[in-house]
Design a protein that fits this description.
The structure is a single chain. By secondary structure, the protein is mainly beta. It has one domain: Alpha-Beta Complex (glutathione-dependent formaldehyde- activating enzyme (gfa)). The protein contains 1 helix and 9 strands; from the N terminus they run ββαβββββββ. A 7-stranded mixed beta sheet has the order 5-6-7-8-3-2-9. A two-stranded antiparallel ribbon has the order 1-4. Strand 7 and strand 8 form a beta hairpin. The chain starts with 5 loop residues before the first strand and ends in a 28-residue tail after the last strand. The mean pLDDT is 91.
Length: 133
């Protein structure tokens, strides 16, 4: 938001989703958290200082969230379950026009005014292994 943090993501994300869990709603102050996941070595923080916060997910697993030290914007996440992956907050890309039809997870806790009509994969709760076979 303030421009202090700049990042570079190489290649295409492996996964994009909007998480509608209550914790993501609290973290963003919004209805969901849009995140694009990359292999960790394909994400580089070019400028800016980040602070981190560890919390539990609705699944019970942990996640580390990195915020801009200057303005507090969510920049990136590293979920315990996805070792070797880094998720970039979707709204922080300079151009977001390429983001189309993300998956939706934790739809059971979505805000009642949010209508989920698109997405290749919409889950009541979290992903499971058969989603990726």
């Amino acid at each position: 938001m303030c421009g202090a943090v700049r990042f570079e993501a190489l290649g295409e994300p492996e996964l994009i989703h909007a998480c509608h869990c209550k914790n993501c709603q609290l973290m963003t102050g919004s209805a969901f958290f849009l995140v694009a996941y990359y292999v960790d070595h394909n994400v580089d923080i070019i400028t800016g200082d980040l602070i981190k916060f560890n919390r539990s997910c609705d699944s019970g697993r942990g996640i580390t969230i990195y915020f801009c030290k200057k303005c507090g914007s969510t920049i990136l996440v590293e979920p315990e379950i996805s070792s070797g992956k880094r998720g970039l907050a979707g709204g922080n890309f300079d151009d977001t026009s390429w983001i189309k039809d993300p998956n939706n997870i934790y739809c059971k806790s979505k805000q009642n005014w949010v209508e989920i009509t698109k997405g290749p994969l919409n889950k009541i709760t979290r992903y499971d292994s058969k989603d990726f076979i």
